[in-house]
Amino acid sequence: MKNIYRSLFSFLILFVLIAGNIALVSAAPKPGVGTAGTQTNVDAVSGQGIGELTTKATSIANVILGIIALVAVFIILWAGFLFMTSGGEEEATDAAKNYLKYGIIGLIVAALAFSVVKVVNDLLAS
Fold first, then answer.
1. Are 126 and 29 in contact (CB under 8 A)?
2. DSSP three-state, residue 28
């Protein structure tokens, strides 16, 4: 029963990540096309007001999320090292499993946070 819940949770996470990215790609505005399909002057619109703020905030968030993802990858690598050097000791393998679990959770949180930042940036930009 526990494996069913894990499988459903994994499927839900994958669905959110994939569906969110597909929705973002399909909803991305086309350069030079206005909301009613009319041509707009892209140079006159870009880089003014809220656009600069969202661009800077997105850049800062992407750097922070990249660092978080990098730390999560190092935690996963550390868990693998601990597991390989545990020598079959119960406590050491449990510690390695916990590191692995929290490293994977960190990667999922970073991916979801990146999607949220992207959605908010798209909402504020339009």
1. yes
2. coil
The DSSP letter of residue 86 is S
* pLDDT at residue 39, rounded to an integer: 53
What is the spatial distance between Cα 83 and Cα 4, in angstroms, rounded to a whole number? 25
The residue among 12, 13, 34, 45 whose CA lies nearest residue 109 is 13
Taking only Cα atoms into account, the Rg of the chain, rounded to an integer number of angstroms, comes to 21
Q: What is the pTM of this model?
A: 0.57
Nearest to 86 by CA among 72, 98, 69: 98
| Cβ–Cβ under 8 Å, residues 79 and 106 | no
Residue 25: its pLDDT value, please? Answer: 47
Q: How many CB atoms lie within 10 A of CB 116?
A: 13
Pick from 22, 56, 33, 38: nearest CA to 124: 56
Average pLDDT, the chain: 74
CB 17 within 8 A of CB 115: yes
For residues 23-29, average pLDDT: 49
